[in-house]
Every structure is written in structure tokens, then in C-alpha cells.
Amino acid sequence: MREFRVSVLIFIICCSFIGCKAPSNDKRTANNTTKQTKGEREFQEYLDRKKNEYIGKKIPAILVKTLKGKTYDLSKMQGKIVLLNFWFAACKPCITEISSFNELQDKYKSKNLVILSVGTDKKEVAKKVVDEKNMRYAVVADRKDIAEQMEVSTYPTSFLIDRKGIIRQVFIGASDFDATHAYTEMKPHIERLLK
Fold this sequence. Notes:
By secondary structure, the chain is α/β, with parallel strands linked by helices. It has seven helices and seven strands, in the order H-H-E-E-E-H-H-E-H-E-H-E-E-H. Helix content is about 45%, strand content about 15%.
């Protein structure tokens, strides 16, 4: 029960900071700026610790079937670079990222990048988003179990996995609702793995 309460508390804290921006140079009271900076710093430290838990580890065996019926086994995708994304329909930053993922898919598909987006919503909800947003990459629905297996508590979360199945980068949450944010943040890491 204690673990559940801690998980819920972490989830609430994480969700409250998603999309927060660093304070600008506008005139604020010293106390307000200090509190905001401290909270943002603590959240960033939490995210950094979480990322470090994953980086350098092999992706576990995960078998999924997309909405289009294609099956992926992450333990057997050696030779491909995989961007494993976790999302849900009511998550504004998750939806905003879609255009970036479409661009990354278009740009790097021929270079063996596979974007695999694991949604936690029911199939009908996910399918509606896929159609409305023209998602051009592999989408899986109704798989909260995989999010739990990967200990995803902040959305969106994406894992960049190299050709050997090793997690090389983790992108947790969104610091900006700008549709190009995910593209500009992830592109250099993808290109590094392509070399």
C-alpha cells in the first residue's frame, strides 16, 4: 500500500510540472522566483535520476501488436534504431509530439528507424487519435501493462534504443508545447546512433 501511495504522489508531482517552462527574465518577487526555481530544479533532478536508471540497459523482451496488425518483438529488433514512445490521448504534450514523430519517421525510416508508440488508451480511443492526427508510425493501444513494466510514470516518455537493443537516451515529459520540440531534441541523438 505504501508503494502505491508513493507512486501516486510521484505521478501527481510529475503531472503538475509537465509543460512548465524555465522562468523568464520578467520582474517577479524574489520569493516567487526562488520557489519556482527550486521546484523545477527538484523535478529536473528527479527526471535525471529516472533517466539514469535506464540508460545503458538492454530493453526487456516486449511483444506488441499494432493497430494495423503488425507484430513487433523488441528483443529481436537488432540492426534497427527504435524510438519507443509512451502516450495517452488526454495528454496535451503527447498529442503535440505527434507532428515531430511524423517528421522523424519520414526522415529516418529508410535508415532503419522504427517509431513504436505505445498508448494506454482503449483501441477505439487510440484509433481516433491516429486518424485525426495522421500518425504515420506504428501505434499500439491498450497496453498500460508495458508502461508499468517500463516504470513509466510521466507522459510522454520515449526511449531511444540502439541497434543492439540498448537504451541510449530517455526523453521524459515535455518542457514546451511547441510542436517542433520533440523533433529538435531527439534528432541529434538519432543521428548520432545512425553514424
